[in-house]
Amino acid sequence: MFSGFSTRRATQPDAVFLGDMLVEAANWRAGGVRPRHEVLTSADHRRYLAGWKRAADEGLIAVGDDGVPVGAAWYRMLPQNEPGFGYVGAGVPELIIGVHPLWRARGVGRTLLRGIVELASAQGYARISLSVERDNFARNLYRSEGFNVTAEGLMRDTMVRRTG
Ligand SMILES: CC(C)(COP(=O)(O)OP(=O)(O)OC[C@H]1O[C@@H](n2cnc3c(N)ncnc32)[C@H](O)[C@@H]1OP(=O)(O)O)[C@@H](O)C(=O)NCCC(=O)NCCS
Predict the structure, then answer these.
(1) 104: CA distance to ligand 1 center in Å?
(2) Cβ 116 vs Cβ 71: under 8 Å
(3) CB-based contact 67:29 (threshold 8 Å)
(4) Are residues 8 and 61 in contact, defined by beta-carbon separation less than 8 angstroms?
(5) How many domains does one find in the chain?
(6) Which domain CATH number covers 107?
(7) Which of the four, 13, 81, 100, 105, has the lowest number of CB atoms within 10 Å?
(8) Chain centroid to CA 31: how far?
(9) How far is the CA of 105 from the centre of ligand 1 (A)?
(10) Which domain holds residue 134?
(11) Averaged pLDDT score across all residues of the chain
């Protein structure tokens, strides 16, 4: 029923699909139903995508063999005065990842994660960070891919991985 998938670099016209994946990330919890418009305009989330694709933005799109995007991972440098949930310092880009619900648990997320770490390394970044709510299973995925918890909040943790 499912075909295979491959990855490619994200480009400016992928902004709409990245928006879909940002909504998936915001609504990760079963039953999460925050409407697209609300997520994409919220102060917490719009900073991860507004104005895509800026100079330092990079991303990967996972594409099914039929050419349809099925998942994405991207990173962005956020300033100290408008940090993301996973901000750890100047020069450390923050990662966002989401996979279409029908394509989850098929290796897309892990493939994207490995690819985006390689991309960050190739772009000269020594570290990459993310933020994850503590009860999201994705925390285990990140840990298994070399991310370590560097800060614990009430509900969410910041995780960082060295790219080298
Ligand atoms: C988190 C997410 C990106 C992972 O992508 P994915 O394609 O489903 O992940 P993979 O198929 O590569 O699976 C990675 C590992 O997680 C495990 N896993 C997948 N779905 C799982 C689930 N629902 N519960 C527990 N473990 C799960 C897999 O078994 C796999 O481990 P393994 O390699 O040891 O078998 C994707 O599920 C998603 O978009 N979730 C909603 C949005 C979200 O939570 N984003 C992250 C916010 S920080």
Answers:
(1) 6
(2) no
(3) no
(4) yes
(5) 1
(6) 3.40.630.30
(7) 81
(8) 20
(9) 5
(10) 5-162
(11) 95
